[in-house]
Amino acid sequence: MSTEKAPAAPSAPSAVELCKGVNGLDKLVLREPRGSSAEVYLYGGHVTSWKNDHGEELLFVSSKAVFKPPKAIRGGIPICFPQFSNLGSLEQHGFARNRFWTIETDPPPFPTTTSSKTFVDLILKPSEEDMKIWPHGEVRVEGLETLDYLDNLQNRERFTEQGDAITFESEVDKIYLSTPTKIAILDHEKKRTFVIRKDGLPDAVVWNPWDKKAKAMTDFGDDEYKHMLCVEAAAVEKPITLKPGEEWRGRQELSAVPSSYCSGQLDPQKVLQGS
User: Fold this and answer.
1) Contact criterion met (CB below 8 Å) for 217 and 250
2) Is the dihedral of CA 44, 131, 83, 218 positive or negative?
């Protein structure tokens, strides 16, 4: 005698639906087989709803939220980029939350540990207007991560660099201390890396006046801050004092090499680790 087990009834498939939301704005509705769901507006890439398996709303969105560009949506999960609040030269919380995002049809793989398979990939493509107000990702400095620096914009107060690399979104005037013998300056647009090799000069000055200070300098073009970056080998924190007859030597070598791309980012590691 044999028995057969009837197959389980198939569950409803996960689904992503593009439809119209408040004021006719496009939104995506993501549904899980168990009943949970989410809503994402293409305006701002803004998550406005997240419900659990019982249909309970877990996110707050103000009843008075204005779903009308260029006003940002109040509540939910906004994307504050490339700055938070007014900590930068751009509008409050940057521009990503009041731009229209698009659906990425061929996204790179995004590994996840969750069993949830309902997802959507959105992309914000740069416009000419955005490039004018925020020339993002064009230049970055590597080799100074985690180092202490003196901030000339804050009475030379001492801080520790937190970023993986130094990028520029506002005025910068810093003195990095006890720096390595090699520093890489990546020119993303021209796909090249400048390499500074130095001896006898333990510190490094990094400076860009940005827009307001550039306009205030009589011997500096209003828009020239977009086309320059000052990175100087120096001995600032501990001045070098020589007694009669003593000798000191300092050397700085500057070279330019092609940069390679890795997942869309310039990779200077071969340069920094090379001879």
Assistant:
1) no
2) negative
Average pLDDT (209-234) is 93
Neighbouring C-beta atoms of residue 224, cutoff 10 Å: 11
DSSP type of residue 98: G
Give backbone dihedrals phi and psi of 75, rounded to 5 degrees, phi first: 110, -170
Phi and psi dihedrals of 246, rounded to 5?
-80, 160
Residue 7 pLDDT exceeds 50: no
Contact call for residues 44 and 97 (beta carbons, < 8 A):
yes
| 268 conformational bin, left if phi > 0, alpha if psi -120 to 50, beta if neither | alpha
Task: State the chain's maximal CA–CA distance in angstroms.
Answer: 107
Backbone φ and ψ of 250, nearest 5°:
-125, 145
Residue where the block lists tokens 């004092």: 241
C-beta of residue 28 within 8 angstroms of C-beta of residue 18: yes
Say whether pLDDT at 18 is over 50. Answer: yes
Q: CB 78: neighbour CB atoms within 10 A?
A: 19
- What is the rounded average pLDDT of the residues 239-255? 91
Cβ atoms of 184 and 198 within 8 Å: the answer is no
Confidence of residue 48 (pLDDT cuts 50, 70, 90): very high
**Phi–psi pair at 94, nearest 5 degrees:** 75, -170
> How far apart (Å, rounded) are the C-alpha atoms in residues 124 and 57?
27
Residue whose pair of structure tokens reads 């000052």 in the numeric block: 230
- Over range 167-179, report the average pLDDT: 92
Segment holding 174, helix H or strand E: strand 172-176
